[in-house]
Structure formats: C-alpha cells, structure tokens
C-alpha cells in the first residue's frame, strides 16, 4: 500500500512541476502516466481481494 501512495505522490509532484515550470510539459505527461499506472495497480489489488470467499 505504501508503494501505491508513493506512486500517487510522485505523480502529483511531477504534475505540479510540469505545470509550473516553463518547457517541462513532459513532466506533466510522465506524472499522468504514473498516476494511471498506480490506479491500475489499485484496481488489480482490489479485484483480487474481492474474488476470495468470506470465512
């Protein structure tokens, strides 16, 4: 879980730097790609947990 939170934090920081700094728009794109990857990992982990039967 800590890895996912770290990925989201890095994505937000890169996005902010990409928007604020002139000529660094590629950082915004990289931040968006990292955020999408983190959300995909969250979705995969969530779907794996719901597949187990309750005891």
Query: Main sheet, how many strands, which sense, barrel?
Result: none
SS field, number of helical segments: 2
Element order: H for helix, E for strand: HH
Give the fraction of residues assigned to helices.
over 70%
How much of the residues is beta strand, in percent? under 5%
Runs in which pLDDT lies below 50 for 5 or more consecutive residues are none
Report the structural category: mainly alpha
Molecular structure report:
- The protein has helices spanning 2-20, 25-50.
- It is elongated.
- It is built from 2 helices and no strands.
- The mean pLDDT is 82.
Concise description?
This protein is 82% helix and 0% strand. With 55 residues, it is mainly α. The radius of gyration is 15 Å and the shape is elongated.
What layout of secondary structure does this protein have?
Blueprint: H1 2-20, H2 25-50
Helix pairs in contact: 1-2
List keywords for this structure.
single chain, 55 residues, 2 helices
